[in-house]
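Researcher: Before we compare anything, I want clean individual predictions. No alignment, no superposition, just each chain on its own. First chain goes here; please echo the sequence and then give the C-alpha cells.
Model: Echoing the first chain and its structure:
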Amino acid sequence: MPRIRTSRTKRPPEGFEEIEPTLLEFQERMREAENTTGKGSKSESLAPIFQLHHQRSRYVYDLYYKREAISTELYNWLLKQNYADANLIAKWKKAGYEKLCCLRCIQTTESKFGSTCICRVPKAKLGKDAPSTCVHCGCRGCASGD
C-alpha cells in the first residue's frame, strides 16, 4: 500500500501528475479487493490482491523500462513510496522470470515438496489432468517458456 502523503513528505518528482490517476485507480481497486470477503479458502480470497499488486508493479515497470516514459528520479520515488514492488521488478529483469506473477511462486519453502509453484512449469510439460492454477495467487501460468 502506498504511503500517505503528509506535509512533511517530499513533493513527488516531476511527471507524477500524469500517472497519478492510474495509480489512484489501482489503489481504489485494491481497497475494494481488500474489503470484499472472499468465499472459499484464504488463498482464493487473497488472489485478487496479488493480481492487482502485480498489475500495479508491472505498470510502473513498463513505464520505466519498456516505454521510458518516466524519469529515474520518479521511478525511484515510486519504489520508495511502495507504489511498486522493487523485489518483483528485480526478478523481472532476470532471464527466465520475465512473466513472474509473485515472489511466493518461486520460494521453495512455500510449497509442499520444496520446489517452485505449478504456475512456473511450462504448459507444454504439464499433463492434461494437472492443475493449472496457482494456489497462492490464482495465476494460470507465468513460465517464460509459454
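Researcher: Okay. Second chain, same rules.
Model: Second chain and its structure:
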Amino acid sequence: MTITTFSSRELNQDVTRAKKATRDGPVFITDRGKPAHVLLSIEEYWLLTRQRRNIADALAMPEVADIEFDPPRVDITIRPAEF
C-alpha cells in the first residue's frame, strides 16, 4: 500500500490524478502542510466501515447464518432482601 500526499492546491488542479492514486492506497490531502483529509477508494472505505458493525448486523451476515448458537439458559432465583 502506498500513501500519496497532495496539497489542497494540487488536488484542485488535478483531481483525476488524486482519484487514480487511490488505487494504490490512501491519498492524504494537506492544508498548509498539515494532513487535513483522506481520499479513499470505495473498496477501501467499505473494508474500513465493515469492521465496525453492531452485533445484530454481524449475526445477520450470511457467513454466520448457518452457525448454530444455543446459549445455556440461566436459572435466576429471587430471594427476599435481608435487612
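Researcher: What stands out in the second chain?
Model: Residues 4-56 form a domain with the YefM-like fold fold (CATH 3.40.1620.10). Additionally, Strands lie at 4-7, 27-31, 34-39.
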